[in-house]
Amino acid sequence: MRFIDIAKILASVELVGVEATYKTVPQVPGGLGSFLTFQVLYKDAFPMVYALLGSETQETYSALLTVIRNILPLCYNGIPFVTDYECALMNAIREVFPNSQLV
Predict the structure, then answer these.
(1) 5-18: per-residue pLDDT in tens?
(2) Residue 4 contacts by C-beta under 8 Å, 6 or more apart in sequence?
């Protein structure tokens, strides 16, 4: 079996996709009403983070994205982020990843 250097692979990710949805969310206690995925592209797209969130505010998105930035060793400088046109999410990406590009 060949050892895969995950940190090296994550450092070479070329694109990040972030998507939040409010309509297709499992019924869970605690008022968690949105579902967010954080995906990366390395040869193929695959999800790295799934999160249930209590609100869809820039503050909530920024808090989660800060945790992701501190845990996932991607090369965030200049990496393109693909997302929908939700202003709170786009502003949070700009805040947490200021050297990245929104596509």
Answers:
(1) 777 888 888 899 98
(2) none
